[in-house]
Amino acid sequence: MTPPPPAGPGHVLPLVTGAVLRPDADVRLDGYGHAWIAPTSLAPAAPAPLNDEEHQADGLRGFARAAAPRRAALLDAQPQGCGRDAAALARLSAKSGVAIAAVTGFHPASHYPTGRRPWITADAALATFQRELEGGMREQPLARPAAVAASLGANAPADDPCWDAAVEACRLSGALLLVRLERGADLAGLVGYLAERGVAGERTYVCRMDSQPDDGLHRELASAGSLLGYGGRAFLDESMHGGNTGLERRLEDGHAGTVAIGLELAEPGAWGYGRANEGEGAGPGAALVGVERRLRELGAGDHVVDAVLGQNLLARAARPETLGAGG
């Protein structure tokens, strides 16, 4: 198995509570999660809200039970201005025992009020990302985000000023660049863009890879050192119906060290909202059990399961600890 690059000394993953996870932590980590989405008014493509605190806390407690004896952890992928609430995430972490990390960065413009991001220029976006990375998140000033999210659609990243801001924020802070692939994303263009700017593959995490059918691009990114994020639900749905998913192909190639799994539970139904027995068979706990069971059915041993369900991403996302981070 290709091992993940080791985190440097003093590197940590900052959490929304102000505490940190260290790269050697024994975890089951949802690598692309959604524990809270606050309603976003006037946004053309606003996601459905996940804002019932007690329901979300109960689902996260189920996740913690499913992860035991390891600690449950989740990287919440909702950036500021379009549904993130780091203070709510901190409360959920305290109620459930799940270690939650958040992101700064940007989503598609359609996820913001009136369909416009709040930053027109790269300098304005960079100022926001840097302020959060260095001084804490707007809703939770004592905690820093763990990564910088960047949305990639059909347009080249060079045409979007927020992309240059995200890359520069990662360079200055040492934070991981989390790439969110939208439908029709120009993945080939991303490879060239990152190479031109000298962005190390080891500092990029490309999520929602299931949306990209060209397996050659998956291999190219993995060869460049990028971490590839595959969706847990897509992995279960496709593999159980005879499909050979991108995740399975990476495992067959012996490249488990280039893979992370995000459960991608962004809809209320995936958390059991509206069911007669709320939460039964839903939420991150049920998804984690299903994903781990399927990995073992495919022949993955403890080392591979631990890697793709936590250690690979934890090693990549850990960044230099700064004064004021909790223990």
What would your notes on this structure say?
The protein is α/β, with parallel strands linked by helices and 327 residues long. It has a single domain, classed as Alpha-Beta Barrel (TIM Barrel). The chain is 36% helix and 16% strand. The protein is built from 10 helices and 12 strands. The protein has helices spanning 53-67, 86-96, 122-135, 161-173, 187-196, 215-223, 232-240, 246-252, 283-297, 302-317, and strands at residues 11-14, 20-21, 27-33, 71-76, 99-101, 103-105, 147-152, 176-181, 204-207, 227-231, 259-262, 319-320. The strands form 3 sheets. The chain has a 6-stranded parallel sheet with strand order 6-7-8-9-10-11. Helix 1 (53-67) links the parallel strand 3 and strand 4. The longest helix has 16 residues, at 302-317. The chain is globular, with a radius of gyration of 18 Å. The protein starts with 10 loop residues before the first strand and ends in a 7-residue tail after the last strand.
